[in-house]
Amino acid sequence: MSTATFNSICFNQGYLRKGEVKISKVKNRNQRVKFYVGGASVLSTKCMQSSEKNKKEVRIGLLGASGYTGAEIVRLLGNHPYFGITLITADRKAGQSMGSVFPHLITQDLPTMVSVKDADFSSVDAVFCCLPHGTTQDIIKGLPRHLKIVDLSADFRLRDIAEYEEWYGQPHSASDLQKEAVYGLTEISREDVKNARLVANPGCYPTSIQLPLVPLIKAKLIEHRNIIIDSKSGVSGAGRGAKEANLYSEIAEGIYSYGVTKHRHVPEIEQGLSDAAQSKINVSFTPHLMPMIRGMQSTIYVEMSQGVTMEDLYQQLRKSYKDEEFVKLLDKGVVPRTHNVRGSNYCFMNVFPDRIPGRAIIISVIDNLVKGASGQALQNLNIMLGYPENTGLLYQPLFP
Ligand SMILES: NC(=O)C1=CN([C@@H]2O[C@H](COP(=O)(O)OP(=O)(O)OC[C@H]3O[C@@H](n4cnc5c(N)ncnc54)[C@H](OP(=O)(O)O)[C@@H]3O)[C@@H](O)[C@H]2O)C=CC1
Ligand SMILES: CC(=O)N[C@@H](CCC(=O)OP(=O)(O)O)C(=O)O
């Protein structure tokens, strides 16, 4: 038995911070080790001293590092003890350093951005693909098979290729890969994510909508008809590319409803809800652009099934998420606010009685760039590679 002091150690379910632990046997880092912490013992398959932080075990390639979700991956991985970035790509900004494109990341020790066509994947183990939909499928098709991939674009989210082609207005060039892709709404498909090679990371609106609705639909607590979803997004949801519609003068001091009746997230939302219901569900969905940078709220109006009460809805969500680290049902009556999840991987939700008997109102909030994109992507890659799901994701919300 030996004694050591760690700043942090990780074990199967999370982290222990600062403290003395006694280690019964240690031969190598991946060995099963017994820790004694304050009299209790904890079994671990992987442990690491924080002083080893720079010797990262997994080499990450980040495609689309010069965009918002790419930058967010860099920010999150800055605190990840096991994942180190060894390759970053950009398109127009290829040849530049990360610090020159995103000065807030100047302290990160990263290689220069290269174009995807010049990227060498031989010393990469896993890839985050933060590229525009439509361009992604051809790039992923060309990647070596040894790579684990989390794709943040919409290219592999829809199982039905014809539906993709209809809603995205272009042919799909990698239908074979689509068959192996796992839709990575982590809390709902965790078991499938574990064994996936390619994960299609959900869209931000679909994440905020499916997390509350899937458990209620599975438990048959709400009717499949008349689901009305009104969502609001911060402008970073549209990416960093210059667009007239996203100019400050177009966004500030106003709200803009867009994609009315035809937003491309409709089939993704309906796919997830229909899977939960095991029958086709159609929804009314309208997204809005808000004069804020980050954040997303979905306000969802539903009809409760015959005989179901508000208490049933609340208790079902409590049961579904009581052990989840990143999805929180708030105390009764507390209204979720985008401010309360900013910069974090949390989804906060709650359910309220409507004034009209038999109807309920659900509100869920996320940070579109974290749980709605890069945070959930990291949660998925942690699972795919057998690390604790929360690794690198323990940021508290940034408020005010
Ligand atoms: N922003 C958000 O909140 C969310 C975004 N997503 C999805 O994640 C993906 C990335 O989004 P986001 O980071 O916001 O987008 P950005 O527009 O901010 O970044 C796009 C990135 O892709 C690169 N790129 C553009 N075109 C090409 C191309 N033809 N070949 C190779 N690289 C290219 C850009 O390089 P360069 O800058 O050098 O031109 C940039 O690095 C998108 O599919 C988006 O829909 C998903 C959920 C939420
Ligand atoms: C504000 C804004 O423009 N948001 C984006 C959604 C971002 C996202 O989650 O979507 P994808 O990953 O499917 O692109 C939009 O409405 O297209």
Low-confidence regions: 1-54
Helix/strand-derived class? alpha/beta
CATH topology of the largest domain: Dihydrodipicolinate Reductase, domain 2
Strand order of the largest sheet: 12-13-11-14-17-16-15
Classified by CATH, the class of the largest domain is Alpha Beta
Helix-strand string: EEEEEHEHEHEHHEHEHEHEHEEHEEEH
Average of the residue pLDDT scores: 89
Number of strands: 17
Summed up, the domain count is 3
The number of helices is 11
Helix content: 25-40%
Structure in words:
With 400 residues, the protein is of the alpha/beta class. The chain has three domains: 2-52; 58-202 and 373-384, Rossmann fold (3-Layer(aba) Sandwich), CATH 3.40.50.720; 205-369, Dihydrodipicolinate Reductase, domain 2, CATH 3.30.360. It is built from eleven helices and 17 strands. The chain has helices spanning 68-77, 98-101, 136-141, 161-168, 175-180, 186-194, 204-218, 248-251, 266-277, 310-321, 370-384; strands at 2-11, 14-23, 33-37, 40-44, 58-63, 83-89, 126-129, 148-151, 182-183, 198-200, 227-233, 256-257, 283-289, 296-303, 327-329, 347-353, 359-366. The strands form three sheets. Strands 12-13-11-14-17-16-15 form a seven-stranded mixed sheet. The protein has a six-stranded parallel sheet with strand order 6-5-7-8-10-9. A four-stranded antiparallel sheet has the order 1-2-3-4, with no helix packed on it. It is globular and about 60 Å long.
